[in-house]
């Protein structure tokens, strides 16, 4: 049995160092304390990251078939409501008179504070997970198809309208431009498509989630001005703690045109405000995840082991530099070496088997 133990001992990958060969120094003590503090900080951060999880972004194919969704609008146009025509048209040639469901309220035009006026709306970040979870209060407009206070110089347009989930556009034009609207044709001098947008979103109406067009506006002195907003809509799902929020985020580009009167006393194009949209076949899933516990323990052991190895290399490098700069006697000045005498080597406590 003893011979077997002796043979197994030869495979020891963790050789031990006798205390009599150990050298302690104040520098080594400080290095150990610093290493322990760094290790505790890393442990604190890793445990916090494990308990808090991480936010994962994944693009997948949108496998949900939706025939339509809502277009939510809340904006102010610097023209009387009776001069405006609203319509939805898509690539299937399906037209929807948005004026039947939208609300038109006559009011005075004004520029709200903190709105971005005449700025490019190209930079917009996807709302983060925590913000969406805090602000996901679904709402609906209480009225639909109402016409109030007609005759005012500006028009407050708000409401939700259903649109087919295909490429299309929602537009606001002057009556008589682009469509035959009875006998009423708005004169050129009455056109003014200065506007501010408080809400423009797709899908379920979440008024506290910001979108690229929210709180923006355009001011113009041109009568034949056309504002064209091109949006690409991506279904975005937020998942956290079992709660799932379906939204539709969109990217935005703009094009502005000013038309002229041709020799036939007509405009070269249709002035107005155009919101052109198309839906992407992909879906963005933003979810909170947590790594498995076994993976967390393995990662923690790897980090702590790497910290000890790096600390050992740095300490030896520091000792080598001190030896080169000040000599070996300087480095041994504050060291303590445990030494044993001749009798100690023969004592049963220090006796080793060979």
TrEMBL record:
Q: Which Pfam families match?
A: COPIIcoated_ERV (PF07970), ERGIC_N (PF13850)
**Where in the numbering of this chain does the Endoplasmic reticulum vesicle transporter N-terminal domain appear?**
8-95
Any one cellular-component term (Gene Ontology): endoplasmic reticulum-Golgi intermediate compartment membrane
Q: Which domain of life is it from?
A: Eukaryota
Where would you find this protein in the cell?
Answer: Endoplasmic reticulum membrane; Endoplasmic reticulum-Golgi intermediate compartment membrane; Golgi apparatus membrane; Membrane
Domain (Endoplasmic reticulum vesicle transporter C-terminal) ranges: 153-313
Q: Which GO terms describe its biological process?
A: endoplasmic reticulum to Golgi vesicle-mediated transport; retrograde vesicle-mediated transport, Golgi to endoplasmic reticulum
| Family label | Belongs to the ERGIC family.
Described purpose of this protein according to its UniProt entry? Plays a role in transport between endoplasmic reticulum and Golgi.
The protein, known as = Endoplasmic reticulum-Golgi intermediate compartment protein
């Amino acid at each position: 049995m003893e011979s077997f133990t002796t043979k197994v001992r030869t495979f020891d990958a963790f050789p031990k160092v006798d205390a009599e060969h150990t050298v302690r120094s104040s520098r080594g003590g400080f290095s150990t304390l610093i290493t322990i503090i760094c290790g505790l900080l890393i442990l604190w951060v890793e445990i916090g990251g494990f308990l808090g999880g991480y936010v994962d972004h994944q693009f997948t194919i949108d496998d949900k078939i939706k025939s339509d969704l809502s277009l939510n609008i809340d904006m102010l146009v610097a023209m009387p409501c009776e001069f405006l025509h609203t319509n939805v048209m898509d690539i299937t040639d399906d037209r929807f008179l948005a004026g039947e469901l939208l609300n038109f309220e006559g009011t005075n035009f004004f520029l709200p504070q903190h709105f971005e006026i005449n700025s490019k709306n190209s930079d917009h970040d996807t709302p983060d997970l925590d913000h969406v979870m805090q602000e996901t209060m679904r709402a609906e407009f209480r009225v639909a198809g109402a016409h109030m206070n007609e005759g005012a110089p500006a028009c407050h347009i708000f409401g939700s309208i259903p649109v087919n989930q295909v490429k299309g556009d929602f537009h606001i034009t002057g009556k008589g431009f682009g469509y035959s609207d009875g006998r009423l044709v708005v004169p050129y001098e009455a056109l003014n498509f200065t506007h501010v947008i408080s809400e423009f979103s797709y899908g379920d109406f979440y008024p506290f989630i910001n979108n690229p067009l929210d709180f923006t506006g355009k001011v113009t002195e041109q009568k034949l001005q056309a504002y064209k907003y091109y949006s690409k809509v991506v279904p975005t799902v937020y998942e956290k703690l079992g709660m799932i929020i379906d939204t539709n985020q969109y990217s935005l580009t703009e094009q502005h045109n000013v038309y002229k009167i041709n020799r036939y006393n007509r405009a070269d194009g249709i002035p107005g405000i155009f919101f052109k949209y198309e839906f992407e076949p992909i879906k963005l899933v933003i979810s909170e995840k947590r790594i498995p516990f076994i993976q967390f323990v393995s990662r923690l052991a790897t980090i702590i082991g790497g910290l000890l190895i790096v600390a050992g290399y740095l300490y030896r490098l520091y000792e080598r530099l001190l030896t080169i700069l000040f000599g070996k006697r300087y480095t041994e000045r504050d060291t303590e070496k445990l030494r044993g005498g001749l009798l100690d080597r023969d004592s049963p406590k220090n006796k080793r088997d060979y």
